[in-house]
Specification:
Elements: E1 12-13, H1 23-27, H2 33-36, H3 40-54, E2 57-58, H4 59-66, H5 70-82, E3 86-90, E4 97-101, H6 103-115, E5 124-125, H7 126-135, E6 141-142, H8 145-151, E7 155-156, H9 159-171, E8 175-179, H10 185-191, E9 200-203, E10 205-208, E11 211-214, H11 232-238, E12 246-249, E13 253-256, E14 268-269, E15 276-277, H12 280-283, E16 287-291, H13 301-307, H14 309-314, E17 316-320, E18 326-330, E19 333-339, H15 343-346, H16 349-354, E20 357-361, H17 366-379, E21 383-384, H18 386-397, H19 407-423, E22 428-429, H20 431-442, E23 462-463
Parallel strand pairs: 5-10, 8-19, 8-20, 11-15, 13-16, 16-19, 21-22
Antiparallel strand pairs: 1-6, 2-4, 3-4, 7-23, 9-12, 10-11, 14-15, 17-18
């Protein structure tokens, strides 16, 4: 399968410059404490927490830890020295200064940690985050037919399904996808993030009235190397380059399944570390949030749906900090619901009307299924005998009324490969290999559960065989 890479295809972006702050200003590294938008007390507390956690630090250590320019760190150090909370040492060679907490400083650090355990890079303000989300919004992209064709050039997908997905992504409205297990819902929806084009900047944390909410999560935010042509020493000293409190990342794709609980959609306040972490939908800002296996969560579906009523309609969400403070954040996410169940079993018409795009994934036609099997066998280093595939379709799929799903070639060919390697046989797939894999995969002679038995075989998405 071909991979177009991070920046391709790039969707056409359109922004209203009158309402969106120029990107350079949003990403610019602050030159003075005032430029951060943060209070001096918050920055001083963060500095003593770094010293408390890491011990003796050099100027460069503090600059990197706080993600602030050297001249700002100089002012923070000067304040701490005047307050007698740090002491200064020289290195053995005398070329650098080192800083450590005094007894008074350790008391101040403990008090700071008791209020918030966060000790990462300096946060940005909530107002800064709101402007950042708007500048990088998923609503500033035009998804066209040409862009969809390019994005899925390495995937065989029915024209009507491709157009449905393209229209839905163009609208940036919530999407409801449904269909039998194995019809490619998760695979296709994960690839939709490539339609949003360029990388974005994600803050390490956001300050909300003196409290710090940790946002950057390496599980969902994949950092991209950046070379802005600036010398690192110049950046640390003069404030050149982009704001180091922001991380250049791929567009986030966040997925949660049956493990999702309502707590995952609210701020997580860890009682031991005293760190407040952003909920999943906030981590997905400027990207896609997929709720997979809808109906399998450990909560009522109506409760889950009701959680999204305001965000879907107003494009804002409301969160509550550990202190009880409730505040508003942007809801700039393409929300996708995916289920193997019938939509009307999960939601009433009133809610389904709020989701403009409801897209069904169906089994595939035989011709495409055969091509996918040939591709899967080739990837496993196997030679597929035509008679073996004929036997699979005529004697197994048709006999047991099992639909031709995109997941079957991958799963069954993997079992065939394991069997051949175990017996030390030539890598040639026979009808006997296919039968053995089928029996192991479906467990019982019936081979397929009633929920996946369908009478009609129609088209759906699957991988295109390599040339």
């Amino acid at each position: 399968m071909m991979d177009k890479g991070l920046n391709a295809p790039v969707a056409h972006e359109h922004t209203a410059e009158s309402s969106i702050m120029p990107q350079q200003e949003l990403m610019a590294r602050p030159c003075q404490v005032e430029d951060t938008g943060l209070s001096v007390d918050l920055l001083l507390e963060l500095t003593v927490k770094h010293l408390y956690t890491n011990g003796v630090q050099t100027h460069a250590d503090l600059t990197n830890a706080l993600a602030l320019p050297g001249n700002i760190v100089d002012k923070l150090i000067a304040q701490l020295k005047r307050r007698a909370t740090i002491e200064v040492f020289t290195t053995i060679d005398g070329n650098a200064l080192r800083y450590a907490l005094t007894d008074k400083g350790r008391i101040a650090a403990l008090e700071a940690v008791s209020r918030s355990g966060y000790s990462g890079p300096a946060p940005i303000t909530l107002a800064h985050f709101e402007r950042l989300c708007e500048a990088q919004s998923v609503h500033h992209h035009e998804i066209t037919e040409a862009i969809m064709n390019e994005a899925f050039a390495d995937t065989v997908i029915p024209r009507d399904l491709l157009d449905q997905l393209g229209s839905a992504m163009h609208s940036a409205r919530p999407i409801f996808v449904y269909g039998l297990p194995g019809t490619g819902k998760s695979y296709i929806t994960q690839r939709l993030s490539r339609l949003l084009g360029k990388t974005i900047y994600v803050p390490y944390a956001v300050a909300v009235d003196g409290e710090i909410l940790q946002l950057f999560d390496p599980a969902y935010h994949h950092a991209v190397e950046q070379n802005d042509g600036k010398n690192n020493d110049d950046i640390l000293i003069t404030g050149q380059g982009h704001d180091a409190r922001l991380v250049l990342c791929e567009r986030p794709f966040v997925m949660s399944g049956g493990e999702l609980t309502m707590d995952g959609l609210e701020i997580n306040s860890d009682e031991r570390s005293l760190v407040q972490s952003a909920p999943l939908q906030l981590k997905a800002s400027n990207g896609i949030y997929l709720i997979d296996d809808l109906g399998r969560q450990r909560m009522a579906v109506t409760e889950l749906f009701n959680r999204w009523i305001v965000p879907m309609e107003a494009r804002v969400d409301y969160l509550t900090l550990a202190s009880g403070k409730r505040f508003r954040v942007p809801f700039d996410v393409i929300l996708i619901f995916s289920t193997n169940l019938e939509p009307r079993e999960l939601a009433d018409d009133a809610f389904l009307r709020r989701i403009g795009h409801k897209i069904e994934f169906k089994p595939m036609p035989e011709r495409q299924y055969r091509a996918l099997w040939a591709d899967a066998a080739r990837q496993h280093g196997l030679t597929l005998m035509p008679a073996a595939l004929d036997y699979l379709i005529k004697e197994l799929h048709e006999k047991y009324s099992t639909p031709l799903l995109p997941s079957h070639p991958r799963d069954l060919s993997g079992l065939v490969r394991d069997q051949i390697r175990y017996h030390g046989e030539d890598p040639v797939v026979t009808a006997e290999h296919v039968r053995h894999a089928w029996e192991n995969f479906f467990v019982s002679p019936e081979r397929a559960s009633p929920e996946v038995r369908v009478a009609q075989v129609k088209g759906t998405a699957f991988h295109q065989p390599e040339a």
